[in-house]
Structure prediction request, 268 residues.
Amino acid sequence: MTDVLTQPGALHLGDTPRVPFARLVRVELRKAYDTRAGFWLLVAIVGLLVVIPGIAVIVTLVNNDPIQLDDFVGIASYMASFLLPFLAIMLVTSEWSQRTAMVTFSLEPRRSRVVFAKMAAAVLLTVLNLIAGLGIGVLYTAICEVVQPDQTGWHLDAGNVAGFFVTALLAMLGGFAIATLLLNTPASIVLFVVYRFVLPGVFAALSALSDTLSKVIPWIDFQGAQGDIYEWTLSGAEAWAHLVVSGLLWLVLPLALGVWRLVRAEVK
Prediction:
């Protein structure tokens, strides 16, 4: 055996086929639920998908209010989108907090492929969230149809569905970008909360203080620029320009820097 290994040309490491990208994505999807934190976060997302629209059903039936399938799908998708970015953050940072990065990058030395596999897994989870939201919406609409058929409608606007998906996807990518920059779970979560929920309020306050700032802030307020996407009413060159410029500042640039850092970060 030793003689075979020491013979020139006995080993052809360069002939080893690289890991298929689909397999990398499957591994990253499994990482989303095979840790305790990931599992309970997924449970929380499913709970939001079921409980919050369920409360809307109770309120609707008690008050005999009109309701549409659109409403349930919007509630389910919007509530779950709050937690999806945290799942994307943990997909990235868990490698470093649990010290599994060395194993991961030893099995797949091309770190960029691992990063993009994590991103693809996060996108697939966003798609699954939308599908689950649609399913929950259909179920609760059917319940309302049985109890109050005159007040229940099955209208589902394709634009609204697209808006739910795009805004959830942008939120998830925002969390993913922050995670690649910091490579630390608590710090990434805190910074994402500030970016997602605190910064828009700061921008709104600054806009109210100065007319000059009110003209500048739409170019740097990425959350505000996404408002029309949610309703799928984004139109006009200026609105698109606000979205593109602020997106480059708050999403594309951090993501590019984060991927660059992750690819070159020292693995301990």
